[in-house]
Design a protein that fits this description.
Elements (H helix, E strand, L loop, with lengths): L10 E7 L16 E3 L3 E2 H19 L6 E4 L17 H18 L3 E4 L5 E2 L4 E2 L2 H6 L4 E4 L1 H10 L4 E4 L2 E6 L4 H6 L3 H11 L9 E6 L9 H5 L4 E5 L5 E4 L2 E3 L16 E8 L5 E6 L6 E8 L5 H14 L12 E12 H20 L5 E14 L7 H4 L6 H10 L9 H15 L5 H10 L22 H4 L3
Parallel strand pairs: 1-4, 4-5, 5-8, 10-11, 11-12, 12-14, 17-18, 18-19
Antiparallel strand pairs: 1-15, 2-3, 6-7, 9-10, 13-14, 15-16
Helix pairs in contact: 1-2, 8-9, 11-12
């Protein structure tokens, strides 16, 4: 798949962007506010603003940039957790901004499918319409283009300004495994997508990571002059000639310290690429606060700690939708299971207060218990208090029921059991259900290894079984 577009020098300067995730709408613990009434939500708009800032930056540098490469995830949906198409506002924004961009710059753009934005159940991608609308300037490689290239053993590349652009749209490794096409894919990379030496700069564009097996290592081993990567939201160098541009806006809280923006790269055949980071600042802070707690901490003490952190960050100065912060509290230490629901209830109420009281400049507030040890510890009672406690809840409650008039049809033995469980839980003791669950989840001793049966592979590995044929 070769498209001749321009002829020029044997060095190209590219703007490398990725993971714009247009249309992403954070929903957990978010204050419901419109950026544009009944059209664009507040945090959704942050991703649109980042996109517009990057295009403006490239327009301002149009005399030095030859080509724009987008390494996947233009839109946020559809994907595994959201099968819906992108919001209409996201598609409208892309159409309008790209129309203006191409009119003003005449700079071509290469874009590939990531794991977001492709309809896996249909032979369709959100990039298909863009290829039609901007056919003179935008050249897209979708997951379905990759399938066709694999089936026909042809390269998936473009010739732009004397640069050879080899594209590797995202493909789920499970697809290759289930369709027994791993060897077919590997051979296609090495034999068909290998760079053409002596014909200008060779640039690969891929969406994936080594850690989750979505980036094939063979791509990194070939002699590409530059490899423009997407999927990892952290901007940085993978190797001397392979870089991640990172996401353009903070998608999750684990990105709260990451630098966002894009890369400008000068690529010349046979030479080390020159990479320049172009930061894009967001007006919305993302904060992650770690708070250590102990079993002696009450909901009130924890509430006071959270409020002090809010005050430290200057988030009590009044509501401003442009600068309202996204806040996450990560709890560490230990707490009682019997206290956990009370603390959660307090935090829910505190979030409601943050969102309803306009003196707080907070757009999102969530918390995380993953690093907290939850323990069952019975409360320590004074000797005189212990005398009042029930020694045998089941026996005492059974005696109590005998003194009452119970309507016909009630199972008294079940009532006794439920009451005893409730009393134990109120005292901070593990119930029978929780003890049984803990026993069941304990790791079992490994059983003697059985001889595994070999599964015969199909005669011919193709993608047809998974994708449903031609």
């Amino acid at each position: 798949m070769e498209i001749e577009v321009y002829n020029g020098d044997f060095m190209v300067t590219i703007a490398h962007i990725a993971d714009t995730h247009l249309g992403h709408r954070p929903t957990t613990g978010v204050k419901f506010e419109w950026a544009e009434e009944r059209k664009i939500r507040l945090l959704e708009n942050d991703f649109y603003e980042a996109w517009k800032k990057i295009l403006k930056e490239i327009i301002d540098r149009k005399d030095e940039i030859d080509l724009v490469i987008h390494a996947g995830d233009l839109f946020d949906s559809p994907w595994d957790r959201n099968p819906h198409p992108p919001p209409e506002a996201a598609r409208e924004l892309v159409y309008k901004t790209l129309k203006k961009f191409f009119e003003e710059t005449k700079i071509p753009m290469i874009i590939i499918d990531g794991n977001h934005g492709s309809f896996t159940g249909y032979k369709s991608s959100t990039l298909d319409t863009l290829k039609i609308i901007f056919e003179d300037y935008l050249f897209a490689a979708t997951t379905w283009d990759l399938r066709a290239a694999l089936s026909n053993q042809i390269p998936l590349k473009f010739k732009v300004k004397d640069a050879n652009i080899y594209t590797f749209p995202y493909i789920n490794p499970e697809i290759l495994y289930k369709s027994q096409a791993i060897e077919l894919f590997n051979a296609w990379i090495v034999n068909v997508q290998k760079p053409e030496i002596g014909a200008g700069p060779n640039i690969a564009v891929a969406h994936g990571m080594i850690i989750d097996n979505t980036l094939n290592k063979r791509i990194l081993e070939l002699n590409y002059d530059y490899i423009a990567l997407g999927h990892n939201h952290k901007m940085g160098k993978l190797s001397e000639n392979a870089w991640y541009a990172g996401s353009t806006e903070k998608w999750r809280f684990d990105e709260f310290e990451d630098e966002k923006g894009f890369l400008i790269v000068q690529v010349e055949e046979g030479e080390k690429p020159s990479v320049q980071k172009i930061p894009i600042k967001s007006s919305r802070p993302m904060l992650v606060e770690k708070i250590k707690i102990d079993t002696s901490d009450t909901p009130d003490t924890i509430r006071n700690i959270v409020l002090s952190k809010v005050s430290e960050h200057g988030l009590q100065t009044g509501w401003d939708p442009r600068t309202a912060a996204r806040v996450k509290v990560v709890f560490e230490g230990r707490t009682l299971m019997s206290s956990l629901w009370k603390i959660n209830s307090m935090l829910e109420y505190l979030r409601k207060q943050f969102f309803e009281d306009n003196k707080f400049n907070i757009a999102q507030f969530i918390w995380d218990w993953k690093s907290v040890e939850k323990t069952w510890v019975a409360p320590a009672y004074a000797p005189e208090e212990r005398e009042c406690l029930i020694d045998d809840p089941e026996k005492d409650f059974e005696e109590f029921l005998k003194s009452q008039t119970i309507e016909e049809g009630y199972d008294t033995s079940l009532l006794v059991k439920l009451a005893a469980e409730a009393i134990k839980q109120a005292l901070g003791k593990p119930t029978e259900h929780e003890i049984r669950k803990e026993i069941q989840t304990k790791p079992k001793q490994p059983s003697p290894r059985k001889e595994e049966k070999r599964v015969k592979p199909r005669k011919r590995g193709t993608l047809d079984a998974f994708f449903g044929g031609e």
